[in-house]
Amino acid sequence: MRPAAFAFVFALLAAGPRPASAEAPAAEVDTRRWCAAELKALANEVCVFVPEKPAPGPRTLIIHLHGVIQPDTHDQWNSQRNAARVGATYGHTVIMPRGRRGIGPKTMESWWAWPTGMDARRIHEDALIAEWTAARNALEQAAGTPFERVYVFGFSNGAYYATSLAMRGRLDVAGYALFAGGSGAPYHEMEAKGTKKRAPIVVAWGAGDPTHDKQQALAKMLKRMRWPHLEIGRPRAGHAMTDEQVEKALAFLGKP
Looking at the keywords, is Hydrolase present (predicted)? Predict the structure, then answer.
């Protein structure tokens, strides 16, 4: 049986318990630090969690893309600890890179976010992917063995960006899991027409999320395109990522 339910929640919710492998200091006041105190920071502020007991089977890396993060707060630590909790539960390594400022959604332009627009992608995407690749290479070199599977997990704004990455086949990964974000906008379908490698996609949403219709539209688009996917909609969930959704997503992506 899995540990007690964990949920990826929007930044206003509390972080919950720390991963069992490390304890954070009681007082955390340096909001300028990006990575939570118990997590290791690689180059370019890429935070990493390495499980004490890796799961049997293929060695797996999760690239976790956060939602929009308000600067000068500790909201990013909540997101990172929830991501690390996934790693501890399933025995997977997780890296948690940082987005960019100045490209956020309306009224949150100065927050940390991902380049969902074409102009922002042109400016930032190559550097972002280079950071993730460098982090992966550093972990593989330290362990002396490569990752056999790499998944991209996106939450909220991170899920919208992960949708774009998936539709364009921008990354060589084994699958994507999109939680409380992502859309079936027509331009995504246009982008996908030239994509040869269609990595499996999980679309997870809650009916309590005001924008869940966009995720439903994405699932319909994927079905229409015959793109391998799984839709996990929950009537009682909100803008969140539940333990059940995580478990089902990993099971689906882990199929041969």
Answer: no
